[in-house]
Structure formats: C-alpha cells, structure tokens
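Page header: ASSEMBLY MODEL / three components / 1226 residues total.
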Amino acid sequence: MDMIDYPDGEQFSPGHVACAGCAEALSLRVILNTLGADAIAVVPPSCTAVICGGYPLSSVSIPVQHTTLESAAASASGVKRSLNALGKTNTTVVCLAGDGGTYDIGLQALSSAAERNEDILYVCFDNEGYMNTGGQKSSSTPLNAITGSTPAGKLSRKKNLVEILAAHRIPYIATCSPAHLSDMSAKIKKAASIRGTKVIMVIIPCLPGWGVADDAAVKTARMAVDSGVFPLYEVEDGVDYTMTIDTRNQSVNAYLKQQKRYRNLSDKNISDIQADVDKEWEYLLGRARK
Amino acid sequence: MDRQPSPLWTNSSSLLRKTGTWRSAKPEYILSPSPCLGACPVNGRIAEWIGLLMEGDVKGAWLTLVDNNPFPAIAGRICHHPCETVCNRQQMDEAVGICSLERHVGDVAMREGWSFPVPEKEGEKSVAVIGGGPAGLSAAYQLRRLGIKVNLLEQQPQLGGLLRYGIPAYRLDKKIVDYEIRRIIDMGVDVELSAEVDDQHALQKLHDEFDAVYIATGASQSKALPGLDYSQSWVIDSAEFLSATNAGEPCSLGSDLVVIGGGSAAIDVARTARRLGKSVKLLSLEPEHLLPAQKTEVDEAIEEGIEFVTAAQMQSVSKDGGSLILECIRINFNQGEERGKFTINPVPGSEFQLRTDAIIPSIGQDADTSRWQSLLDSDGTVVKTDDCWQTSTQGIFAGGDVASMDRFVTQAVGMGKQAAAEIGYYLEQLLSGSPVMNANETEFSEINTNYFPAAARNKQADLEVDDRLQNFSEVQQPLAEDHALAEASRCFSCGSCIYCDNCYLYCPDMAITKLKHGYEVKSDYCKGCGLCVAECPTGSVVMLEEGQGTA
Amino acid sequence: MKEKQNLQLLSGNHAVSWGVKLARPHVAPLYPITPQTPILEKLTEFHSQGELDAELLTPESEHSAMSACVAASLTGARVFTATSSQGLLLMHELLHYASGARAPIVMFNVNRTPGSPWAFWPDQIDSLSQRDTGWIKMYSESPQESLDTVIQAFRIAEKLALPLMISHDAFYVSHAVEPVELPQQELVDNFLPAYNPELRLDTSLGQSFGAPIDQATWNRSRREAGEAMARVENEVLETGKAWGELTGRSYAALENYRTEAADTIIVTMGSMCGTVRDAVDALRDQGTAVGLLKVRQFRPLPVQTLRDSLAGIPSVLVLDRNYSPGMGGILHQELKSALFGMRDAPRVHGLLAGVGGVNVSSNKIQQLVAEYADAKPSNDSVWVE
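Prediction written out in full:
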C-alpha cells in the first residue's frame, strides 16, 4: 500500500479548538512538523488563528504573531527583516492564512511582498470562503457555491490566485491537499529550502462551510484532486509548471454531490462546471508541457 | 529598561485543554474477519499472515498459517482456494493470489527447515486416529498441539492418503508430501502402517483402549458406472490407475484412452495418462462450463492435448477387433438445485461413436460405511456425526470424506482441525485458542482503496506444454521472492491492522498513541471525528458511540 | 550654554532623517507621501551609501509599512517609520494594534490636511484624530527639535513599551531649512540603550502574541497601557533633561516661554509656537504681559502640569491648527477638560487659527491678544478671520 510519510514531531499539540475532523488542523500538523522548531509564524484572523491560540494557551511550539486580516505578508516581511537585522537569518518565517486573508483583503500586501521577493513562506488554507465568520463568500468561492452571502449560489467564478502569483515570477508556488500528506510535506520542505517568496495553496474542505461529514474532509479533498477541480502542481520562477498528478480519474459529479453547498445544482450547472474544469485542466497541462 | 510590557503572550501549551469532552463517539481498533477467512475451509487468518509476509516476517506468516493448517506447501499447490473467489480485491481489479502466497510461505518453511514444537506438557489422554490422509493428519497435528497422545493407524504402506495416492505428482510433488507429513510425525505421533481396522470388533477394541477414536478413512471405493463390466481388462478403476502410477508402476494399457467423468480426479487421470504417452479423450455429462473440476485444471488439460467430449453420455461398449467402440449420445444437462442432483435428457438423433483401447471411469468415490455398521450410524453414503463431529457412539468421532460430501483436500484438513478441538474439549475441556473476532465480515466498502495502487496479479508461471508431457514435474512454478512480496502487498488485509500509521498520521488532534505493535486512543483529546476510520485502508478501526464497548 | 558645533543647514524632514540614522534602528518600513517623502529619500540615501545599517523595506502602502513595523518590533527590532495625512489615516487600524502590542515603534508624521478636498497644507487634524489609538504623541516646532525628539523618542518609547508618534507641520517645519546641530554618534550611542525586550517572537522562547483573549484580559491590557501612559510625562522630562546635559538643549512635556507674571498665556503646538514667540516678544516690548505655553507632549496630556502652569492666569488663548467639525479645536477642548473644576481657572478662549494651513502672522496674534484680553470666553471655538 501507499504509505504516508511526513516528519513526526511535537510542533503542534492536542487540545486545540479546531472542529472535529478539521483538515486545516491536520495540515497544520504536517506543515509545522515539517518546518520544525526554527520557524516563526504569522497568522491573520482565520480558523488557524483560533486553532493556534486561545490565550494563554498555544497549540503550536513556535512563536506566532496574530496579525490583522490584511497584513500577513507585510507582517511576515517585518518579522523576517527583524530577524535578518538581529542575525537570525536561517529562521523560516511562515504565514498561515485563510483564503479571505489571501485572495481578498490580504492580496495587496501579498503582491507587494512577492514583488519584493521577501524571504517568506506563505501558506494559504483555501476553504473557499470566510468560514471562520460563519461561511460567507470570498473571491476564492467557486461558481454556484452557496454561502452565507450567496444564498442562491455564487454568480462568478473562483479567482485563479496561482496565476496571479506566478505573474510575480516568485521562485516557488505549489498546491497541496490534505489527502496527499507526503506530497504536502515534501513541498513545504522544498519551499523552505528556497530563498525568496514561496506560496503554498492548500485546499481545505470545510466541514460546516461546505456541508460535508465530520470524517469526510480528506475524502472530499481527494475527490477535488482526482476530479481535477483542484489539481496538484508546482510553478517555479513563475513559468515552469510541473504537474504533481497529471491524471484525473473521476468526473466532478461525485465531488459536487458530496457537498451541501452545491445542493441546488441543476444538471446544466454540473455540466457547465465539468466543461470549465476540463478546459482549465487542459490549459494547465498545456502549461506543464511547455 | 525598567518595565516589561503586559504579559499578553502565551505561556502554556494547549495540552491543558481536554478537547476529548467534545466527543460522542470513539474509535475502537478491531480484528474482524476478512471474507477469505470465512471462505477458507480451515478458517485460516489469511489477512493476518499476508500482512506479516508484507512486513517481511515470513516466519510469523508461517506460524499464523500453520495455526490452522499444517500443510501450507501442499495446500498452496492444490487447494481449490474459495478464498480467492470472495476476495474483496476482485471488486477493484483481480483477487489476491492467496494460494500462490501460501505455497511461497510453505516452500520457505521447507527450505529453512522450520518445525513444529513438541508439546511442552504431555497429557494423560490418548486418541486413536484411523486414516493417515489430510483429515487424520490434521487431527493428529492439532491433538498433539493440545498435548494429547496420538496413535495413527494407516491402511496403506505410507501416510498421505489422497495426497500420496490420489493427486498426481505434476500437481503435488511427493517430496512435499513427505516433508509436511514428517513434520507432524516429528511432534511425537505413534504411527502404525498397513494397519487394518476392518470390522466393528477392531473398532470397539480401539474404543476400549483409547480415550477417543477419530475415524478419517476417506472415500476409497470408486463409484461404479452402471452397465459397465468392470471385469474386462480394458476397464481400469481410476483410483487404481492413479495409485499405481503414483507408486511408479503404471498399468499397461493401449495407446488410446477414454476417461469418463468431469471432476478433478477425472482430469488427474486424463493428464496422468497423457504423461504416459497416451492419446486421451475425456467424456463428461456436464458441458464444459459446468465441469466440477477447477477451470485452471481444464485449461491445462486442453493445453496438454486432451480432447474434451462434453455434454455426452456413453450408452454401450462393443469390441471391434483390438479396439473398443463406444456408442454415445449428446445430452442436455440440468445442474439441479443441489450438488449431485442433476438430470439429463438425451438429444434424439445425436448419436455418435468413439473408438478407443481402454476406458477409465472416474465418476467419484464412496466411503465404506458398512464395516462398522453396528457401532456407527450412517446415511448409506457417509458416517453420521453431530455438530461436534461425534458419531452415534460416544467417544468416536469422524471426519473427512468418510463423514462428509465436502471432498476437497483442505475441507478435510478443516474437518480434522475442528474434530481435534472437539475431542480436546470432550476429553479435558481444553479450549484451542483463536483470537475473538468481531462478528461482521469486512466488506469492500470498508476498504479505503485509495491506498492500494492498481496492480495486476502476479501469476505463477506454468511449465511449457512440451516439457510437461515428458515427465511428472510440477506444472505450476513458484512465485519469485519479489513477486511474492508484490503479490502480498496487493492484499487489502481486510479487517486486520497492518500498522500503516494512517490512523495516527491523519489525526488532526494528535489523539492516537503509537504502541509497540498497535495504537491507543487518547481519551483526553480525541474529538471523535472518525477520520482515522475513514482513512484506515483495511477497515480495522470503527467508531463506537461513547459508552459502548466492542461486542 | 555650550558652544554650538557641527552645524548643518537642514530642512525639518532631513533633520528627522539624521536623527533616525543616529538612533540606529534595525528596521524601517517606508512609504512615500508628500510632504513626508524627503525623510524617506534621505534615509534610503544614507542606506545606499552604507551609512545606515538597517533593513529598509518599501511596501505597497502605509498599512503594510505599519504592519511590518509592528511585526519587526515584536521580533525585537528597533523600528522607525514616517508618514503623513492619508498615510497615517490608512494606518489607523494598526495604530491600535501597535499600542495593544506595546510595540515601541517610533513614527514621524508630517501634519498635512487630509482629503477631501485634496490639499497639501499644514494642519494637525491627521495626527490629532489618532489621539485615542494609545500612542504617545509629541509635536515639534523646529528642525532641531525634530532631530532631538526623534532620538529621545526611542529612549522613551522603548523604556515604557509604548509606541510614539512625533509630528511637525508640513512645509513650515518639514521643508523650512535652518542650521541644525548634529550630535556625535558616540553621544547618541551612550544616550540610547540597546533595545533588548524580554518578551519577543523568538524561537528560543516559543511564546506567541495576539492570540484571542477573554474580556478581563483585554480590559487589563488597556489598564496597563494607561499605567504606562501615566509615567510618560516624567520620562519625557528625565529624558529631555539628560539630553540637555549632553547637548545643552533640554526638553519637557510643556515649555513656558516668558510666562512670568503674564496676564495672557497663549497655548499652542507645533510650528505656531515660533510665530507666537515672535508675537510674545513684540508684546512684551510693548509692556503687555504675555507668554507662550507650548504643548510638546499632547498624549498623554500633562493635565496637572497644565493646571499648575495656568493657575492664577487671567486669560488663556488656545490656537488650534485643526478643526473637529461639531466640536471645534481639539486642543481647546482638551485644555478646558484639563482645567475643569479649578478654583482659579483662567478664562479660556479657543481660536481656530491656521486651519487648512492658512497663514497666521505675528501681528494677527498680537491683535488677538488685545481682542481677547478682557473678553468673556465662549464655550465654542471661534474661527479667526
């Protein structure tokens, strides 16, 4: 069988307050233990902020600055520059942000940090909405998904943030899934070894936000990857695309049917989504072939 | 600096927060039977020993295997492997080659010379086992493991029964038979060869002398084909033919033979005859797809040039000079609801002739139930036993072909094992230990197939046909070491923990502790999400509502 | 008085940059805005010439600049930034965060009218509208004072773990050039202890800052900030005295200029003080007993010292170069509140003088003194025509 491999450790502690079955907590476990002790995290308001904290307790061993929602990349730049000035140049500075803090309000600061090629690792836990505030749409929410602010389903598509970041020509961007933990760990390790701005996008099926069962976050993430809705790939220097998994083995149907946020989809909606996923998939494969 | 800012900084670990209180259900590790276990005639813990094989622990795999079956090398060659028919992996690609793996383990054990331990404590009780075939040997083995003395009486000059005298060497090399029997005898079994227990007095004497008797004399009487004159020199009984050939003294016959029958024994006869240079036709009532023989046997027989004349019946025989003319007719074969209760209807106008030198009828064997009639009730076909394999006389047990119409070798081995357990309990209330299992068989839906990459079955190679016909060398070749390992890794280990760490590594709450061999759930932190269950590849952990225990 | 040495002609903004360079910050996130930009440009020039060994970063906004300041400060760095008007207002959210985090950032703000409508003139409403963000706020009158205050500011802020904002007025101070005495690096190094906070983002400590807290702890955090604020005036005084011993230029929270036996005292902040000094000198020459009370430290407002300074003074004129619509001049309101309940409180006249950068001349101030000498004070601030 395929064995899972990521560094075991105690960088993330039990007793945190993530929902039962949360894939973000699971991903944090992998990421924090892969990064190890020589790291400082910057966390804007998000599920991760709640998971890490709850003063005076902390679930993470490394220091965390809980910053403002739009400031993750700027704050991380500040931490990194401070460490540089104090001679601690090897410490990894990692942002752990949500998609609201990344695709939306934090994009300006992230773009600027990327433009300056600040030596930070930026991880976006993409649960496709403002799930920590009860589930409203963000610019990462996909077409037709029901959220608290799109009760009839979102009318516009999900922003392709990887392409925006690739346009900055930063050294490394990768997508990860909590159903592919070995791959997640390997990509985090690779990113941490590179100087400059690195961005990792992790798909996080949100149990209450997407309407999936407590034990189904990993399964849903796997379906997202297997159907091509959330492909796993890397972009180096903004132009070199590499597919981590270059095959799809299922249609979007089962993935969509798995989630209550898509409960109102018509057959036409599903076929439109399938057509869009097919098109994006081919486009991505085309990029990877070049 | 004369003042520090307010200590709004974290100062303790979240370990202080016991989030286990959120839980309404908790994971529970279970050992539940795999479908193969249920189908296995000896109830072998197949998933478990393949798991050990995967880990590279061949000795462990062998020890688990021989817990239920002392003949892995033999069974690995000739078992009809119903386990593979129910294998969950079929629903993904192809069944795991369980039989070939069993052979691999059995062969390694022979190569390494692993033996069974002599019982640590010798008990007072003793049992007479009549019949040194698969059932008798299996019972003797299990009784010895319980510390019970065993006297094994065999009518033939050598032990093995069907293994030695029935199954041809090209399927089962006799060296294998010698070895696996020797290993049982070395546990301290007293053996009497060429020993007859031919009437009720002899049986009564054993009954008086021993604390219990186990009868496993098999089914040694060939069924007679009605209307065929067995006194003719051109009619040879199949058991006699096989036994003589296996003993190295083949019967002299003409060059053309017709074998009548469609079971494994008939195929064995036909293929044996081919190896003696004969031209062979096999005449069966059943159409080819309903032949009781295993499909691989039929395929190999066809490869070897045996001509199958199926869905046909011989009506009469006549002599034409030096050869025979068989008058035959095509039939419609109706399988019927129950095994052996078929009906046939000749197709008018479909008569045809077969020309041959000799006929070997091979339509099955009957047990001899008449010799102990006054002591043991029978239904005319087999000796009657109760649920505990005890006959109508207390203290006399029976199993194998003499007591059952289940006639596969490993079924006999299973019966021997069960009878030994019952005898142990009858004599000393000894319980033979098997792990308590969750009652529910693991279903395919409980397997997380995402962890099992698609992989074609590693098939055992066969000897080339030309080479096969030169001698009695084994047709089926062993799996190479690496192929065996690859095949083992195809096993889903249904219902058995394989210590893959998925439950541990997928827990978002770090609520699983790894033990030396196994896992433990930390009640303080497990929130009861069930991810460990969902991502368990083998279905060996389940969620139980808080407060419930395992059944 | 010591002999002045190492004099250079510097604008107010360049004097600030010199002060920053001498204070040796570790990190300086900077974003350009008129009329602050010369501070940024001088610092980047120093940096490119190898005279300033700091991590400079130039993010896309003042918001990110302040975010980086907070983070760098929490990581243990000495941090400086500068801004003005819109930039300061964009930082607003982070100003609260910085004081809550007790991050001793030093920021220089050049007072400028905020839009709309768009304008670039001296007006203190930008910084005064940030008065409740928990920062120490100081106002400077001249390039020399700006340089001196920047250096003192690091000592005060880092000692009390409070962020500190200094403001000077656009153009009147920011771009006005005058001879400025540059202290020696060694003098500054001895004056300014190394910044080495015990609580910081440090992998060897593992402690985190900013995690969500309960009501009582948030409440306590503000009380503690208040306790620190209560110690600011004394710290400003001690630090100003120490600086005076080294340079001959002493400072305090308030400055009295010719207030002895005054009938009228003019209270104001920033560049207006220079014009008032001129008017005071002229009026004293004419025999009118007038003085200036300069407010250098606006937050925390030195209430008791103000009361002591103004006890028994018949008339006070407050000149506000700012306007809070619906309320009036902010210094006027603050002063009335500071003097509330005093038995011998002066008559306080609030005058909106110079709002939007309009010129207020020495003559005009002299006229106002005469006009309000015996006038009955109005509760509302009065627009000066």
